[in-house]
């Protein structure tokens, strides 16, 4: 997302320079016009990315929990969608994607203007100059929605609803917004260090994955973890959810070209290849190691591939995408199956194992596999810069998420009572139940 | 008269039924049941987490036959239900005191 930005800025700058040779500056006249093709694709992409969270992620997670927690789990995705929408309108967009007048502060956070009062029907954002700003606000909003929703996989089946609401508000404000600004909005990581993150490997997936790990550590294991049967209640929901994520991800990755062009096409191609490769890689490892290839494994592998190709989608070629997919499928299997066992934490639905590890694999491999024939910005790619982006995100997210969890712990409390946990969150928190 | 109770693998039901018909058994009651024997349930694995499923789906057949036909019926079930693998099931044979056909009031072997 940010590369296209930079790419666009670069081509805009070049065009401006070229024009300047013939005519003395006429900046306003040189500003790119709204492009109806770009606008149409971004409107479409926005809808696709929203579809990823509701119902995509809701079903993906909902199918993996026990029957007594299905409604509570899908409700989490839904309420997060609503909460983040309002936060984005009130302050999120401004603080993430518009420049702060103070150049020092701008490294970390954007302009603080409430209620979108600077956005109107004729305005555009220089990061996406060929689409109306309202469309850009909406497109970015859907990313801000899915990121916190992903975290919910780590604390599934045991977090209080009130704690979830408080946590998500604080997390969107103090983790998502600054990271989005630092990587995409003109802040220190993207604009200064040159971290490449096409569609959100760092901002969305590493960010959510690490936050998820912190949640799993703070909340502790589910009651009966390791002894009671916690098998998924409905893997058909999970398969439908994973499929909706896959389709929606075309909006996420190809939409992140912020244009209806060849780069968007390359991103779509790469997304498809990496996803299929990762699903097959997970399946093969599981087949060899556990003797049976499962549907949950196929779905998990596909999501791991989607995650890993996200930062790379607009930088690598399809050969690179194939490599990223294979590494991500096998790597995330290892994280979800072995890492969790070794360190004995209960990342219930593997938010860290799939999104954290997948995001790290994708972000690092972007530095290795970037092809400048796909995207000229790939020329400056380096493993070191990518590692700096990954490291900075991990540290920032881990620290601030921990502080937020402590705040929740001492105000709302984090976990439901043991009784509620045994009864199930559907009944205990929502007064509802699945009937057959 | 003997009551033959057989617990077999569900996918073997059709073969067992055909074998019993061939062996001259006229009637059969079938129910879907769950249980375990030496097979000790099954293992389900989700992302590496293994769960033991204690009760495995089985089919239970009940048939009452004449004393003289019992051995043949048991042999028919045994042959048809066998796969050679663990979990093939069991056959029990019990004595039956009497039987009544409700429609006609016939009793004993005539009611079968």
Any overview of this molecule?
The complex is a heterodimer of chains A (436) and B (112). Chain A has 436 residues and is mainly alpha-helical. Chain A has one domain: Ammonium transporter fold, CATH 1.10.3430. Chain A is built from 16 helices and no strands. The longest helix of chain A has 29 residues. Chain B is α+β, with helices and mostly antiparallel strands and 112 residues long. In chain B, 22% of the residues lie in helices and 37% in strands. Chain B is built from two helices and six strands, in the order βαββββαβ. In chain B, β3 and β4 form a beta hairpin. In chain B, α1 packs antiparallel against α2. The mean pLDDT of chain B is 92. The interface between A and B is medium-sized, with 16 and 9 residues.
The share of residues in helices of chain B is: 10-25%
Number of helices of chain A: 16
Q: Estimate nothing, just give the exact number of structural domains of chain A.
A: 1
Number of strands of chain A: 0
Helix content of chain A: 55-70%
Taking all Cα atoms into account, the compactness measure Rg of chain B is 17 Å
Largest sheet of chain A: none
């Amino acid at each position: 997302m940010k590369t296209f930005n930079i790419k666009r800025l670069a081509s805009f700058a070049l065009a401006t320079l070229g024009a300047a040779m013939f005519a003395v500056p006429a900046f306003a006249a040189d500003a790119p016009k709204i492009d109806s093709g770009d606008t149409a694709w971004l409107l479409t992409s926005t809808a696709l990315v929203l579809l990823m969270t509701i119902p995509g992620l809701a079903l993906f997670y909902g199918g993996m929990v026990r029957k007594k927690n299905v409604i509570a789990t899908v409700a989490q995705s839904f309420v997060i969608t609503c909460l983040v929408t309002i936060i984005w309108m009130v302050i999120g967009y401004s603080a993430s994607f518009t420049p702060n007048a103070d150049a020092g502060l701008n490294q970390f956070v954007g302009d603080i203007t409430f209620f979108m009062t600077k956005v109107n029907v004729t305005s555009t954002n220089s990061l996406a100059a060929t689409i109306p700003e309202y469309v850009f606000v909406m497109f970015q909003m859907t990313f801000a929605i899915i990121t916190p929703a992903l975290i919910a996989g780590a604390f599934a089946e045991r977090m209080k609803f009130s704690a979830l609401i408080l946590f998500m508000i604080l997390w969107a404000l103090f983790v998502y917004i600054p990271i989005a600004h630092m990587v995409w909005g003109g802040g220190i990581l993207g604009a200064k260090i040159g971290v490449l993150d096409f569609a959100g490997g760092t901002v969305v997936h590493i960010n959510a994955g690490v936050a998820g790990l912190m949640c799993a550590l703070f909340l502790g294991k589910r009651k009966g973890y390791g002894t009671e049967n916690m098998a998924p209640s409905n893997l058909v929901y999970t398969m439908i959810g994973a499929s909706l994520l896959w389709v929606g991800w075309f909006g996420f990755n190809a939409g992140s070209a912020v244009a209806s062009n060849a780069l968007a096409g390359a991103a779509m191609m790469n997304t498809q290849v990496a996803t299929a490769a990762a699903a097959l890689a997970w399946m093969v490892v599981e087949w060899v190691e556990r003797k049976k290839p499962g549907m949950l494994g196929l779905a998990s592998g596909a999501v791991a591939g989607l995650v890993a190709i996200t930062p790379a989608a607009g930088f690598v070629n399809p050969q690179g995408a194939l490599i990223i997919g294979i590494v991500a499928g096998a790597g995330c299997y290892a994280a979800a199956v072995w890492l969790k066992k070794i360190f004995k934490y209960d990342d219930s639905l593997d938010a860290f194992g799939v999104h954290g590890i997948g995001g790290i694999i994708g972000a690092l491999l972007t530095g290795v596999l970037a092809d400048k024939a796909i995207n000229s910005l790939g020329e400056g790619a380096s493993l070191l810069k990518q590692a700096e982006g990954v490291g900075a995100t991990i540290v920032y997210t881990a620290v601030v998420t921990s502080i937020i969890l402590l705040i929740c712990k001492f105000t709302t409390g984090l976990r439901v009572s043991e009784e509620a946990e045994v009864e199930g969150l559907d009944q205990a928190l929502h007064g509802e139940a699945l009937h057959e | 008269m003997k009551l033959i109770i057989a617990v077999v693998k569900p996918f073997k039901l059709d073969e067992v039924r055909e074998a019993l018909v061939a062996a001259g058994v006229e009637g059969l009651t079938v129910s879907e049941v769950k249980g375990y024997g030496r097979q000790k349930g099954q293992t389900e694995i989700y992302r590496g987490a293994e769960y033991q499923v204690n009760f495995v789906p089985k089919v239970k057949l009940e048939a009452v036959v004449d004393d003289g036909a019992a051995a043949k019926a048991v042999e028919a079930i045994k042959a048809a239900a066998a796969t050679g693998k663990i979990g093939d099931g069991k056959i029990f044979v019990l004595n039956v005191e009497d039987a009544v056909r409700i429609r006609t009031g016939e009793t004993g072997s005539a009611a079968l």
